[in-house]
Design brief:
- 2 copies of one chain form a homodimer.
- By secondary structure, chain A is of the alpha/beta class.
- In chain A, the strands form 2 sheets. In chain A, strands 1, 2, 3, 4, 5, 7, 8, 9, 10, 12 and 13 form an 11-stranded mixed sheet that branches. Chain A has a two-stranded parallel sheet with strand order 6-11.
Chain lengths: ~350, ~350
């Protein structure tokens, strides 16, 4: 029997890592949702002027990063690297969307957890002293996701009550260690999550598949740090929707942790689930990414937010793995953002 | 016009990051190749006892990491994180292969550049002081790759002369900052590559697609550091094969950099191209991963190697992106490994 010393897993950054700027891009449904005003760019053409849905998703990433760079007043060559990934096979929306930026590329795969994964990783890279400015980018597109993971849109299949609506959106954030950005929101703590598999095999119930991972990460965070949920302006999971959010609340309560007063889910915030007919809520890498890079960052800017936990959640599966009978592991990476 | 100060991009690590142990897993063709004796595990059952090729690939990752952990005499819970990714849609071989390890998971996508990407990223994470032990893992499988990217095996299609043979293999390396590992090979420098697209659209000529990225990275390394190629025991690219290796040599010569004396490609080392009927050579994430984790690490162990450059190369595309007419960008991340 090996004796293993239990290590702390929450990483407290040694130096300030600022979110210099951010940008959110969406389409019509996102514009019409409750957070529509917080997007930097929305386009009623779901193809964003491109020939395919996949190219449209790439274009959203390009627009998001370009807009964030403009807001930060920096040239893309000032970035030390871009960290990005997405839901499409071989992350092609990141690849074709970001190739015009002449910057080292660090490709990630975290499914819908990509935004918090890229920010968490980017923060540690900057904390290492080897990087000064990084971009974290991701996206999803309803039409490219439906085509790849579910049914051809033309088929017009019925959606189950637990199914979620993939957000057509992209978010980009510029991370920086520059003291000129003092006063900007800064990342102070990060926690990389574990893959958790509770045996969910229903690809129309991603919320249930991801919720246990969110519980694992959130519980670990509060147990290790001793922080009080009441001290946060919001504790936001990625895209668990109605079903997943309820599971998180219940499982955390059974562990004597009550976060309900401050807890919400980006998938429930981005759409009006009833009026917009999205069933259990929004999902996709672009969901938590655009809510963070649009709405949350605006709340920091106007002084309403000073302290949040951002926990994007990912369902780790492919269309093929589901057809081969595999269950769907979830993952949740956590980022604490504060304004001092 | 923005005035941009040109930044150095080669990262020199501040503290020693050791490769504590490594392991390589392969199948029959890899066993029969020139490096067959350097694999830790080979299995003549291409399904590794599993029901599908995809599950076999997962099993290879599990075996590789388990073997590396055993050689390092550590429990998986001592790892601060696992960095992994692969070629399959949504990186499912990493997900299902590594889920049993109760460790934070940082998912990557770098196509066949994943081994050097994961080691480069892991090295900087350890250098940050926030991580002490990490695992870097990847894999590929001939049958799962053919099924996903090319033709059903049953179709028995002819392969073009420039096509490469996806290695059925996996490599895992344990990185550590522990001084007890002094004397082990250590990572001293890393360089994250840029995506380079020279317009190659032939999915049967990945070598040509990836070569310009390898040139960009290798040229930048030597120009920035002023190192002499002759001082390295080997400068190894990932999986460029016959075609890509020749392009790299020629393009570097045109830039007055001659690395030919020390240059080889893992895709040409792992198979006997003539006798084993693999056309232009080996490819896949598992190619450079198993050559590094098997052959190169053994060469360090017996004292033959003291100083190498390891440059895995990736072709960034999906079956869908190729069908939609996109060209294939390449990427190459560089890692310098030395034994002091």
């Amino acid at each position: 029997m090996i004796n293993i010393e239990k290590k702390t897993e929450v990483i407290k950054l040694n130096k300030p890592v600022y979110i210099m700027s951010s940008a959110a891009v969406g389409a019509t449904k996102e514009k019409e949702g409750p957070l529509g005003d917080y997007f930097d760019i929305t386009n009623d053409d779901v193809k964003f002027g491109e020939k395919t849905f996949e190219a449209a998703e790439s274009e959203m990433q390009r627009l998001a990063l370009n807009t964030a760079l403009k807001k930060a007043k920096i040239h893309h060559k000032e970035l030390n690297a871009v960290l990005a990934g997405d839901l499409l096979n071989q992350c092609v929306s990141s690849i074709y969307g970001l190739i015009e930026f002449d910057v080292p590329f660090i490709g990630l795969f975290g499914a819908c957890s990509t935004m918090s994964e890229s920010i968490a990783l980017g923060s540690v890279l900057i904390d290492s002293g080897h990087f000064s400015k990084l971009a974290a980018v991701t996206s999803s597109h309803f039409c490219s996701a439906e085509r790849q993971f579910r049914f051809p849109l033309e088929y017009g299949g019925q959606r189950t009550p637990t199914s979620q609506w993939t957000v057509t959106g992209s978010g980009a954030a510029i991370l920086s260690d520059t003291s000129a950005d003092t006063g900007k929101p800064q990342i102070t703590e990060v926690l990389f999550g574990k893959m958790i598999d509770k045996g969910i095999v229903d690809i129309s119930n991603m919320g249930a598949a991801m919720a246990p991972a969110a519980v694992d990460t959130i519980l670990k965070y509060f147990r290790e740090t001793g922080e009080n949920p009441a001290d946060f302006d919001i504790i936001a999971t990625g895209d668990l929707g109605v079903e997943g959010k309820r599971i998180v609340e219940n499982l955390l309560l059974s562990e004597d942790l009550d976060i309900r007063e401050k807890y919400n889910d980006c998938g429930l915030m981005i759409y009006d689930c009833e009026k917009q007919d999205v069933h259990a809520g929004g999902s996709g890498c672009g969901c938590s990414a655009s809510v963070l890079c649009g709405y949350f960052m605006k709340k920091f800017e106007i002084g309403e937010y000073k302290n949040i936990l951002f926990v994007s959640t990912g369902a780790l599966m492919s269309a093929g793995s589901a057809m081969q009978g595999n269950s769907i592991p979830g993952i949740a990476h956590l980022v604490r953002i504060q304004k001092m």
